[in-house]
Amino acid sequence: MSEDSARRAFALHRKVQTFAGRACAFCGQSDALVLQRFRSAIACRRCARLALGRSAHEAHHVAGRSHAPETASIDSNLHAQINVLQAARRAQSRTPEDADWGAAIGALRGAIDVLYAVLRILERTAAVGAFREAAGGLYSAIRILERTLTVHEKEDA
């Protein structure tokens, strides 16, 4: 693990410890990954942005800013969660040097991270039994795609 990766991992650990069991003073969101100190309260990323007169949505570089300029407008809290997933993946990734292949891998990995974040939200909000039944196939498809990408990355590295 690089020094930068170790620093990010420590910062994430500290954030989760700091905000575990706490909630946004405005909407009640309790996911530690999206909480932050805001003025004299704790707020989720979305509520903090709204209080500052900004949009509740942010531009997300699905393939990663270094691979492609295309963005998708997504909810601020979802963006915070996806950024954590992508930072963790970057710490482990061995993306090929070839720019086109790297962009393709980045786009697919970004799509996987978005799907995981959405599934995580649905898992918390939907009826657990019905959700697991409906999402089981999607989880399996995501895992197959991840294994396929990992094999190709190893072959090209």
Features:
two-stranded antiparallel sheet; 157 residues; 10% strand; 5 helices; mainly alpha; two-stranded antiparallel ribbon
Task: Point out poorly predicted stretches.
Answer: none
Number of strands: 4
Q: Strand order of the main beta sheet, please? A: 1-2
- Structural class estimated from helices and strands: mainly alpha
| N-to-C SSE string, H for helix and E for strand | HEEHEEHHH
Q: How big is the Rg?
A: 17 Å
* % residues in beta strands: 5-15%
Q: Topology of this structure?
A:
Blueprint: H1 3-19, E1 35-38, E2 41-44, H2 45-51, E3 57-60, E4 72-75, H3 76-92, H4 99-125, H5 128-156
Helix pairs in contact: 1-3, 3-4, 4-5
What would a concise description of this structure say?
The chain has 157 residues and is mainly alpha-helical. It is built from five helices and four strands, in the order H-E-E-H-E-E-H-H-H. The strands form two sheets. It has a two-stranded antiparallel sheet. Strands 3-4 form a two-stranded antiparallel sheet.
